[in-house]
């Protein structure tokens, strides 16, 4: 697999393709401001205290531990009672944390993206991801827990982030997806990258990917009922700066491949 040292000469940097990619994103909300959210996650508890104007206090109990005051966050209500929280922590500058939570079912999925150096990556994507399904404390969780899924395998979608950004996705297997740019500065470019798929609720999925050619990864919440995709990118710009950028799209299903029982993707 190619690494970022063998990318084509005209390959766009993260900041070049990301400019304007949040045009069709849902608006942020202060609906969670003033609340204390205690998340029970595998091996640790994370307490979030959102405030207005994109600031948040947090405390983490567990092997790593840690706390912060006045760190940046953004919350978007991506479906009824369901929020997409993106958080950067000043004490962890090479990381970003995304939390999807439903305040009614009390189900939670937390995803950490972190940038590592090329030597540690050893040919793998430089922005790996960790996934932690959990619950929102203070009540009984209902419905199914977030879980890895094969539901999207074989699906092809069109993602329109702005008048200047349309991408086609094909979800190839439980480990990889393919993309190509139909409209935008990356038009004609495409690749196959590592991907993960989690089912959060009916018609609701968390899709993430990790690119090989440039150091960037993404987390998206898919709401198929309303045709909206809400997400973020964490990566390095062309100058090597860390950037955590929002994104959002109008999403349409294009086609579906069905595999016979005797063979199929991993």
Automatic annotation (TrEMBL):
Q: Where is the MoaF C-terminal domain?
A: 147-257
Q: Where is the signal peptide?
A: none
Tell me which stretches of the chain form a coiled coil. Answer: none
Q: Which Pfam families match?
A: MoaF (PF10703), MoaF_C (PF17409)
Q: Give all residue intervals belonging to the Molybdenum cofactor biosynthesis protein F N-terminal domain.
A: 10-115
**Protein name, UniProt field:** Molybdenum cofactor biosynthesis protein F
């Amino acid at each position: 697999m190619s690494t970022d040292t063998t990318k084509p000469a005209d390959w766009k940097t993260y900041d070049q393709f990301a400019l304007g990619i949040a045009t069709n994103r849902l608006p942020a909300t202060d609906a969670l401001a003033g609340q204390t959210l205690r998340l029970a996650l595998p091996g640790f508890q994370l307490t979030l205290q959102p405030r207005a104007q994109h600031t948040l206090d947090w405390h983490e109990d567990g092997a790593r531990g840690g706390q912060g005051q006045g760190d940046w966050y953004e919350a978007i209500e991506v479906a009824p009672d369901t929020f997409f929280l993106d958080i950067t922590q000043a004490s962890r500058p090479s990381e970003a944390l995304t939390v999807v939570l439903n305040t009614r079912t009390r189900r939670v999925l937390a995803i950490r993206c972190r940038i590592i150096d090329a030597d540690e990556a050893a040919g793998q994507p430089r922005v790996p991801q960790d996934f932690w399904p959990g619950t929102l404390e203070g009540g009984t969780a209902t419905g199914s827990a977030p879980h890895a899924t094969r539901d999207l395998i074989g699906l092809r979608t069109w993602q329109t982030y702005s008048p200047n950004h349309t991408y086609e996705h094909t979800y190839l297997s439980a480990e990889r997806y393919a993309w190509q740019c139909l409209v935008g500065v990356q038009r004609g470019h495409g690749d196959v990258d590592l991907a993960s798929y989690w089912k959060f609720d009916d018609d609701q999925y968390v899709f993430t990917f990790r690119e090989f050619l440039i150091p960037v990864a993404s987390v998206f919440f898919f709401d198929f009922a309303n045709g909206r995709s809400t997400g973020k990118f964490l990566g390095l710009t062309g100058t090597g700066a860390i950037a955590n950028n929002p994104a959002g799209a109008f999403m349409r299903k294009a086609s579906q491949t069905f595999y016979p029982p005797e063979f199929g993707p991993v």
